[in-house]
Design goal:
Blueprint: E1 2-6, H1 10-18, E2 23-27, H2 33-45, E3 52-57, H3 61-66, H4 71-80, E4 84-88, E5 96-98, E6 103-106, H5 112-117, E7 121-125, H6 128-143, E8 146-148, H7 150-172, H8 177-203, H9 205-219, H10 224-234, E9 244-247, E10 250-255, H11 256-270, E11 274-277, E12 280-283
Parallel strand pairs: 2-3, 3-4
Antiparallel strand pairs: 1-7, 2-5, 4-8, 5-6, 6-7, 9-10, 11-12
Length: about 280
């Protein structure tokens, strides 16, 4: 069964959450504070301590500073729902909500604007086969995101608070140059911290390996060059061609990220998860 959802759709979303018994997967580039509070309240009222929430969003510095993605809401969710797995992916654009027996695919983000103020439109689906497919795809998106724990969220929030304070002082100051420079410096530091967490997560085989599996499962057999292109489109912030591989002080022509992808390929091949046939990599 498929039904149409148009804004405002708060009541529909709350009913969707109340019917959840095991897990919910949410993919939303922007996430607001009030919807997080409401989500936590509904899950808390269910009296199910084993409920799992998989959440994928875009934790760019710009999004956090503007509160388009409100870190305070994510912190609240993690504290209220112990089994919360938050990840972020910079180029996420899909808005998908999946529970045990239903899936919602919509234009609406998990924000007050998405629920009430904006003109949004979507579909609520209860056909088991389609719901299973949407859940599989949403969880695949979640898997290739960067995991963020509660401590890292609190660090992000402290940085956002400091940046917001500097921004307000800058707007009120008669002479803005010094404050503006300090704000821009802190903003660069925040961007670097977001990148550091992303890069650390992807530095081991597992990070790029998961993305290779995602590419091969969605695109089919690919040669290595195609895999490079697909991964670069998914993780553009981590795939900088200007950063070259350096071994024992010698710089090589190959980009550092491509070297890591090749290592991930070899790792997956040894694990017998992928195989190369006629120059094309495919799932085993």
């Amino acid at each position: 069964m498929v039904s149409v959802i148009s804004s405002p759709w708060t009541t529909t979303f709350e009913g969707f959450l109340q019917r959840c018994r095991n897990s919910t997967v949410i993919c939303s580039p922007y996430i607001g504070y009030k919807p997080c509070r409401r989500l936590a309240k509904i899950f808390g009222e269910s009296l199910r301590s084993d409920l799992t929430l998989f959440l994928l969003t875009n934790l760019s510095c710009e999004n956090m500073l503007s509160r388009a993605t409100d870190v305070r809401g994510l912190i609240y969710l993690c504290e209220a729902i112990p089994n919360t797995d938050i990840r972020f992916l910079p180029n996420l654009h899909a808005k998908i909500y999946v529970s045990d027996e239903q899936a919602i695919v919509t234009s609406a983000n998990l924000t007050q604007g998405g629920f009430v103020r904006n003109l949004e439109y979507g579909l609520c689906i209860s056909d088991p086969m389609i719901v299973d497919r949407i859940r599989t795809d949403a969880q695949a998106f979640h898997t290739i995101g960067t995991s963020v724990d509660l401590a890292q969220l609190r660090l992000f929030e402290s940085i956002v608070d400091e940046l917001s304070d500097l921004q307000q002082k800058d707007e009120k100051a008669a002479v803005k140059s010094a404050l503006r420079l300090k704000f821009e410096e802190k903003l660069r530091e925040a961007d670097e911290e977001v990148f550091r967490i992303r890069a650390t997560s992807m530095s081991a085989h597992a990070g790029f390996a998961q993305t290779i599996l995602f590419v091969l499962s969605t695109k089919g057999p690919c040669d290595t060059k195609r895999i490079y292109r697909e991964i670069q489109s998914i993780h553009p912030d981590l795939c900088d061609d200007s950063v070259k591989l350096v071994i024992h002080g010698k710089e090589w022509s190959q980009a550092k990220w491509k070297h890591r992808v090749r290592h991930a390929q070899q790792f997956l091949s040894r694990q017998r998860k992928i195989v190369r046939v006629d120059e094309l990599w495919q799932l085993s």
